[in-house]
Structures are given as C-alpha cells and as structure tokens.
Amino acid sequence: MPILTIDQVMHAYVTNQSAVLALDHLSLTVERGEFLSFLGPSGCGKTTLLSIIAGLIEPTKGRVLIEGKEAKSMRQTIGYMLQHDYLFPWKTIEQNVTLGLKLTGKYSEKTRKQTLALLHQIGLRDVDDRYPYELSGGMRQRAALVRTLATDPKILLLDEPFSALDYQTKLKLEDLVWETLKQYRKTALLVTHDIGEAIAMSDRIVLFTARPGKIKRIVSVPDSLKACTPFQARQHPDFSPIFQMIWKELESIEQT
User: What Pfam families has UniProt attached to this entry (predicted)?
Assistant: First the structure.
C-alpha cells in the first residue's frame, strides 16, 4: 500500500465575490521512503496541496489518504518545515526542538535525549541553552529540521525550506536534509521553484500546470543522480540534460 494516496483532489477558494479553482482532479501515489518535488508556476496550488495533505484544510472534492486513512485523522504523523524557521525567540533551542514532543504527548526523558542527540548529530553542539537570535539562519533551519523530525513523522512536507538562505548555506543544508532523511528512511514532499534543487534531491519530480493546478508530467530522476548527494548530483554529467528538459517543459507550461 502506498504511504500517500491523492485521489481526484479538487480545491476551490470561495469568497462572497468570487471562487478560484486552485487544484483540479489531481491524483498521485507516493511510496514509503520516496522523495518527491513539486515544480510549477506561482499560484498553481503546490502549497495548497501540502496543506491538504497535512490535514490543515479539506479538499473541495476528492480525498487524501495516509496509510489508507483520511489525512485529517493523521495530522500527528505529518512533519511540516517551512521557508522560515518559526522558532520561538523567547525559548531556548532545546525548548524549541522539543516543543512538538510536548504538544503531541510524546515528551519523555528518552525522546528528549534522542532529540538532543539528533541536534548534535547535524552539527548543532553546545546550543541547547542558546536562543534563536544567537544562531545564524542556517543553524536555525537545522534546528527547525530537528523539531520537525523529533516526533518521528511518517511524511515530511518541505515548503521552500532553503529559499531564504544564502546559496552556500542552501547547498550545505540540501545535503544535510537529504542525508538525514535517507538515514531515517523518511518520505518527503518538497515544494520548490529551484529546478536544480528538485533534481538533486528527488526520486521523482511532479510538474504542475498553471492554475488550476493539474499534473502535467511526472519526471523520474535517473538512478545515477539518486545515488549522489545533492551537491554531487549537480556536478554529474546526467544533471544538465534533465535540467534542460524540465526547463523547456516549464517554459511551455507558462506559455499556455
């Protein structure tokens, strides 16, 4: 059974004055441990789809199942990492990264130690008692990743989590997130506007049409690139041809 099933999902935003169709008859299945990226024009419903998968909003039509159960009943199995870290400035890093454990009733001395061990593992040592303002942007995003993973989610939703960072930090975090998710065998869905990032990190890339969002094409990343870290993938000879193909596909989508 796929870990995630999106079945004929439609979603419209309705006000007193208008109705805007964001997603139109979208169907997709995701296997356990897969990394998928969503690419498409701005406003094509990528983030709306993440919100539906997270159980934050219900689709107008269709359904989303996580392990065969309705997404809204599986909210605690979802981790969500956003463009901004949203760490609470008045809480220490330890208090921030263990917050999800407390909110979901999973906090114990064992889970606390596991979370701090992960914090140290990804290069954040000696920051437990520090506050977010004392850390760089890249360090705060690492802490946000630990907070997301602390509750052991089944699926991670990543909504442009690197876009606010400088390029060098972004590349380093791509590798870190990719390696961490591989190690813990997590399923992940990434919304991005960066074609290179999608190719370097993903198993498959879903290309969306302009609004209303439909699946235009699903691109499978070659095994030669999937075996590489994101940084290595960008240097691989197979990288440029798939980049050019996706670039042309997105250009054709934006011109229709």
Answer: ABC_tran
d(CA 128, CA 48): 34
Instruction: For residue 95, count CB atoms less than 10 angstroms from its CB and return exposed for 0-12, middle for 13-18, buried for 19 or more.
Output: middle
Compute the average pLDDT of residues 190-219: 95
CATH number at residue 155: 3.40.50.300
Type of residue at 240: S
Range of the domain at 69: 4-255
In this predicted structure, the answer to whether residue 148 has a pLDDT above a threshold of 80 is yes
CA dist 82 to 15, 67, 110, 237, 247, Å? 26, 24, 27, 31, 25
* Number of domains into which the chain is organized: 1
**Confidence (pLDDT) at 153:** 93
Cβ pair 161, 82 in contact under 8 A: yes
Q: 256 falls in which pLDDT band (50, 70, 90)?
A: low
DSSP for residue 64: E
